[in-house]
Amino acid sequence: MIEIQEVHKSFGSLKVLKGIDLTVEKGEVVCLIGASGSGKSTLLLCINALESINSGKIIVDGIDVHAPQTNQDQLRRKLGIIFQQFNAFPHLTAQQNVALAPRKVLKTPTKYAQALAQEHLAKVGLGDKLDRYPAQLSGGQQQRLAIARALAMEPDYLLLDEVTSALDPELVGEVLDTLRMLAEDGMTMIAVTHEIPFAREVADRVAFFHQGVIHEIGPAKELINNPQQQRTKEFLGNIL
Amino acid sequence: MFEYTFQWRVVWKHWPQLLEAGLLTLQLTILSIIIGLVIASVLAVFRDSSNPFAKYLSVTWVALARNTPALLQIYMAYFGLGAFGIHLSPYTAVLGAVAFNNAGYLAEILRGGFSTVPASQKFAARGLGLTATQSYIYITLPQVLQAVFLPIVNQVIWAMLATSLGMIIGLQELTGMTTFLQSQTFRPFEFYFVAACMYLVIAKIATMLAQIVAAHMFKGGADK
Ligand SMILES: Nc1ncnc2c1ncn2[C@@H]1O[C@H](COP(=O)(O)OP(=O)(O)OP(=O)(O)O)[C@@H](O)[C@H]1O
Ligand SMILES: [Mg+2]
Which domain holds residue B153? Predict the structure, then answer.
């Protein structure tokens, strides 16, 4: 379970998160929607401590993420994160990209890590691309590589930041299919997305971000089909 | 009238001296690059330091090394430092000056190398649970090395050529020794020709080795 309590975060004088409260249960899929600059990416980075917070608390499976005594490197193993810009490691093959963290972080012997990488790459449809370098893969393939890389650490949660918005339209489908499959497998996910139909279909709940707060949150279909707040209506009206 | 007849045998006779001088040139080159790299790594970090002294030191060093003649740098090391009671041997003066020069250029090369690795790479690595050190060793450094490898090889060659200025203060590296030998034997063309070939061969071998190594080590980010 991820519990986010009254989280505030500023960059210098710019207040980005102004009191976020959100609890995500095991097995739940929550989509975050909202305008550019409303703080969605920042929240994801705060959840796995890639960014610090100014006040409030984030608790993952009972562990206070930002407490000084918390081992954040260890905590991040639980929390896979996937970014808009893929961030494949360009100097490593697909297989090496996936095997690196199990080898170095979990100390999995190389042979097993390679087998693990092969298995996860096959799962996202890249079983025949093991020795390709990222530069030799399409955007959609690179993003699926990033998903396989995160899954190889067997995380309990996935944080997804607009994982399809850097893709050509015809490649969006293949990545969304992969995420759909994960959701069906019961993976807990917090996904920032602009793919409203996807959110409606896959998410349990949708949260609408506006100027650093969660302006409205509710069951996915209800919130998208029948938003209560004026701002939510305007946002969905513009995007659909 | 063109009366000059080539005599190569005299060069052959002095080959051991040439070879020894060539090895001295090679040694100076390698040492000056190693020292230069060590200092450059520090300068590159200092450059973006919040400590104004560190930053100023780095900026000044790079500017002086890159914008003043290498010959002047050698004169400064050999004659100039004498004013402060520091008397260096020709060998130390040349090594120091060329290393000083290398450090300035290499610092800029390294800085450029680091700037080619986007911050998001580190985020991705840390997001997988790698520690800061692991992320540096397995993700950042290999990409920096890839970016700086060939520029550094160019600097090695430049350093080798710069050591020839050492002859001006009496160091018998390859150019100095060659000048000495031709003045003894009155065979300038033969000696300078052979010395030129030696420089060329060393530089070519270094470049070729580097390209072979690069082709094996850096298969990934050809077009990043
Ligand atoms: N490292 C940083 N330093 C300073 N300001 C930052 C930093 N990261 C984000 N910001 C600022 O914080 C605000 C929120 O950014 P964030 O990326 O969280 O928004 P977002 O909701 O993800 O937007 P988008 O939909 O465009 O991705 C923006 O104004 C952004 O410029
Ligand atoms: Mg964002």
Answer: 25-120+146-217
Query: Tens digit of pLDDT for each residue in B98-157?
Result: 999 999 999 999 999 999 999 999 999 999 999 999 999 999 999 998 999 999 999 999
Which residues make beta-bridge pairs with A102? none
ipTM for the complex?
0.91
B131, part of any domain: no
Interface contact A107, partner B, CB < 8 A:
no
What is the number of structural domains in chain B? 1
If phi > 0 it is left, if psi is from -120 to 50 it is alpha, else beta; for residue A48 that is alpha
* Residue A134 domain boundaries: 2-239
Q: Report yes or no on B1 lying in a domain.
A: no
Taking contacts as CB-CB distances below 8 angstroms, the residues of chain A near B143 are 90-91
CA distance B223 to chain A (A): 7
Q: With an 8 Å Cβ cutoff, is A45 touching chain B?
A: yes
The enclosing domain of A122 has a CATH number of 3.40.50.300
Q: Please give the backbone phi and psi of residue A34, each rounded to the nearest 5 degrees, phi first.
A: 150, 165
A88 is written with which tokens?
């494949």
- State pLDDT tens for residues A63-103: 999 999 999 999 999 999 999 999 999 999 999 999 999 99
Which CATH number belongs to the domain containing residue B46 in this structure? Answer: 1.10.3720.10
